[in-house]
Amino acid sequence: NAGVMQNPRHLVRRRGQEARLRCSPMKGHSHVYWYRQLPEEGLKFMVYLQKENIIDESGMPKERFSAEFPKEGPSILRIQQVVRGDSAAYFCASSRGANNYGYTFGSGTRLTVV
Amino acid sequence: DAKTTQPTSMDCAEGRAANLPCNHSTISGNEYVYWYRQIHSQGPQYIIHGLKNNETNEMASLIITEDRKSSTLILPHATLRDTAVYYCIALAVNGGYQKVTFGTGTKLQVIP
């Protein structure tokens, strides 16, 4: 009964490279949410996805960031041409439905851009 | 989501009860009060939730006032491992999607 699995746990990228962060929701959960936490700051909502659909991307930066949740496989948060300011912890959460009986969070991916 | 307000930080002596308050004066009738915590560098962890009645589980107790405008999370015997940021959120159930916003929470420091 695995929880929300995120990988990698730590990711180091040079400026200009691409970062791909993966999130596998809990079994039976079809709703995925991505949050970003900058150092010493709170959790900021980025995007909410259901299978094959982006429902709310109001927290996503307009450029370089994209997210998907394909029919098969994990949800992917993709950051193109990373900059130092993208260094943060990225957390994924999942829920059973949009009626939100609480979220279950993964352990996060810590992205460091050098 | 109903806006919630929490103190920025609190200290608690190890072994004593930690009482973390949360104000949610604009909470709607269909919104539950959820509590999460985030231990340093980890993903947020669900603690407890409730609608009207007080709730208790193995981690904590939740006391909700009769008018539902505020609540208190109680950790009955705080340990050093309870040092974390605690978030109080008002969340509608059966109301369709709503964006969940985490505020700044309360940073609880348990002191030996």
Radius of gyration of chain B: 13 Å
Query: Strand order of the main beta sheet of chain B, please?
Result: 1-9-8-3-4
Largest sheet of chain B: 5 strands, mixed
Rg of chain A: 13 Å
Low-pLDDT stretches of chain A are none
Strand content of chain A: over 45%
Shape designation of chain B: globular
**Mean pLDDT figure of chain A:** 92
Notes on the structure:
The complex is a heterodimer of chains A (114) and B (112). Chain A has 114 residues and is mostly beta strands. Chain A has strands at residues 5-7, 10-13, 19-24, 31-37, 43-50, 53-56, 65-68, 75-79, 88-95, 104-105, 109-113. Chain A is globular and about 35 Å long. The model of chain A has no long low-confidence stretch (mean pLDDT 92). The N and C termini of chain B lie far apart (36 Å). The model of chain B has no long low-confidence stretch (mean pLDDT 91). Chain B contains no helices and nine strands. By secondary structure, chain B is mainly beta. At the A-B interface, strand 5, strand 9 and strand 10 of A face strand 3 and strand 4 of B.
Gist of the model:
The complex is a heterodimer of chains A (114) and B (112). Chain A has strands at 5-7, 10-13, 19-24, 31-37, 43-50, 53-56, 65-68, 75-79, 88-95, 104-105, 109-113.
